[in-house]
Amino acid sequence: MADILSVQALNRATLARQLLLARERVPVAEAVGRLFGMQAQEPRPPFLGLWSRLAGFEASDLHAALQDRTLVRATMMRATLHLMTAPDYLAFRTSMQPMLTAAMRVLGARAKGLDLEEVVPAARSLVEERPLTFNEVRALLQERFPDVNDRALGYAVRMCVPLVMVPSEDRWGFPRSARFASAEGWLGSAPSPEAADDDLMLRYLAAYGPASAADAQTWSGLRAAGEALERLRPRLVVFADDKGRELFDLPDAPRPGEDVPAPARFLPEFDSLVLAHADRRRIIADAHRPSLTTKNLRVRAVFLWGGFARGIWETEYKRKVATLRLRPFEPLPRAALDELTAEGEALLRFAEPEAKETVVTVAED
Predict the structure, then answer these.
(1) Distance CA 313, CA 301 (A)
(2) Mean per-residue pLDDT for 39-49?
(3) Which among 231, 234, 186 has a CA at the least distance from the CA of 213?
(4) pTM for this structure?
(5) DSSP-derived pairing of the beta strands 38-39 and 81-85
């Protein structure tokens, strides 16, 4: 019979792998590799997410890794933009293609006349010639395929052509309308032609385990996640959660005790930690999960205290005053407020270095 892991035990195991039990002093690329990517729908969140995880992190560290092409921002898990190490992107981009191709279904009637066998090579030749914004890609493809919806053309390129976003000197590494280059042109090597689903699942468990097949599918968007875990079963240890669901893990992965202290931490919008499991109770209680996402599907920034999400947060910068507002799900004890205030003020000094004053408040809704 499999050992049962409580929600608290799963919390501490996941926080340990996500560098959230203690800040670590490791290079940025190594950290992103250990996290196995960071969701990067917007450019700012990975900077804040790394600040919360790494000792001595400076924004220039991430800028340098983007500029020297050690890290890339590209479409990967769940058909969303992620910050990845270049080797991981090249190794696992092909594994993502079945999910990315399936995502094309959202186009519906707009896909009328769209022939991927014609559009994909045409788009690849365009971005191999020079990096382009998506507005430019759509316009150029529309000239060649005038009877196809321009948004459908752009979405097909995003899903079916291996692209990386070209960094800039902007504050958060990318402009509002960034250019995209072919992965092969930018990195000097094309993605591996072979899928590596089993290795993908091993890396997922290293970063987010112990986890179920449903968790792995939620994180990746791949329907074949469970099949890969079944193939790997002889190499894994198997636990059960408090509801009897099977959880897979690497034998030597960290699983600290339930009583290990978990410091206050601020997670940015879209942080992968709150999106990496079907059952998210290890991070956020089911009762609070609806508060995590806005009506237009933005994933809110949450703060952790005692290891779990206790509320959402937001910042404002006006007249040289940087303000961080806590919106707790439930009233917080004084010890939590004290710890979160200290951490929040440090975060504001990082995010708004020109501020003359930093303020952490609890919003009254």
Answers:
(1) 6
(2) 96
(3) 231
(4) 0.96
(5) antiparallel
Place of tokens 């220039």: 60
For residues 163 and 165, give the distance between their C-alpha atoms in angstroms, rounded to a whole number.
7
**Residue 320 and residue 315: Cα distance in Å, rounded?**
13
CA dist 249 and 345 (Å) reads 37
Topology at the third CATH level for domain 284-362: GMP Synthetase; Chain A, domain 3 (3.30.300)
Q: Which residues contact 263 (CB under 8 A, 6 or more apart)?
A: 20, 21, 22, 339, 343
Beta strand pairing call for 308-318 and 302-305: antiparallel
- Tens-digit pLDDT profile for residues 205-239: 999 999 999 999 999 999 999 999 999 999 999 99
- What distances in angstroms separate CA 37 from CA 74, 204, 214, 300, 321, one per listed residue? 10, 10, 19, 18, 32
Q: Which amino acid is located at 273 in the chain?
A: L
- Tell me how far apart the alpha carbons of residues 28 and 61 are, in angstroms, rounded to a whole number: 7
Q: What proportion of the chain, given as a percentage, has pLDDT over 90? A: 95
Cis peptide before 167 (omega within 30 of 0): no
In the chain, which residues fall in CATH 3.30.300? Answer: 284-362
Compute the distance between CA of residue 301 and CA of residue 147 in angstroms, rounded to an integer.
Answer: 41
Q: Which residue, among 181, 198, 164, has the nearest Cα to 72 in the 3D structure?
A: 164
Q: What is the CA radius of gyration of the chain?
A: 21
Task: Confirm if 40 and 73 have CB atoms less than 8 A apart.
Answer: yes
Cβ atoms 150, 158 nearer than 8 A: no
DSSP per-residue string spanning 56-123: T--HHHHHHHHHTTSEEEEE-GGGSEEEEEHHHHHHHHHHHHHHHHHGGGGGGGGGTT--HHHHHHHH
Tokens 């609890």 locate to 362
Task: State which amino acid sits at residue 69.
Answer: R
